[in-house]
What we know:
It holds the Pfam family PRY. By secondary structure, the protein is of the alpha+beta class.
Amino acid sequence: MQNKIVDQCxxxxxxxxxxxxxxxxxxxxxxxxxxSMASAARELVIQRLGLVRSLCETEEQRLLERxxxxxxxAHQSILTxxxxxxxxxxxxxxxxxxxxxxxxxTDDLQLIQKEQEIFERRAEEAEGILxxxxxxxxxxxxxxxxxxxxxxxxxxxxxxxxxxxxxxxxDERTVxxxxxxxxxxxxxxxNAKKPKACADGPERFDHWPNxxxxxxxxxxxxAWMVNVQNSCAYKVGVALGQLPRKGSxxxxxxxxxxxxxxxxxYDQEFCFSHGGQHVPLGLLRCPAQLGxxxxxxxxxxxxxxxxxxxxxxxxxxSFPGPLFPVFAVADQTISIVH
Length: 338
């Protein structure tokens, strides 16, 4: 028994020595390395953000100079037109005054004798004076402020700050009979074999596998993310509330009418669709998540791959009314990320 206690004491002593050595030799080294790595990481963050800040400042200066240059160009074009039309008015006024004077001081016989001479002369004087026509040169070209770099940085920042804050949920009343909606209102599952039994109200899509969100956006900046990694056939975008819900025609098919703007995937093909016009998108990889940015102040719709930081497509237009997030799925499931 005494030998066992002695053995136990020796083991405890060895264990204590190991812990003492670990505390004296290993932990100080670990602490030093942690501090050194933290310092290096801090320097890396400062260095990289400094580079980003410098790039942003350079791009800001470049774009502001382009905007100023375009403003000056439009202003000079308008001034030139103003001078031109002022001269034209003066010339026309002179011709009109001359004709009035001639009518006042010339008798009828002289007018008849000089009719051809009068009109040929006045026509020659008025030659080249045309009615004003609309010209793009007189308009400010807003594309001068567009920049792929700015768009990508803005999309990254907007998605990072806004994504998940929009509580986008699907309106169960709009869900196609071919889709199953999850209890939380964020996941749509396609079922081609047997349409579910549901009340066929005026809001419900009865043919295409579509669904609308419960809320619409009328102003401001909005962002939401959709998990699409499980589906090879889906559409994600925005639509007007007037989007027809019934029938198999193009009016209720997303991207094939004037009421909807969507990013779509079918197998390995991707495109942006609106009004029956389809813009092919040459994506190198299938996005697992799809970010949607809607800037109603700038009237811009943007689709974004958050994993790669890639802007997939941007669309500028004058949206005619409040917009609802819209979804369609014809393979597996898609889910709104929150």
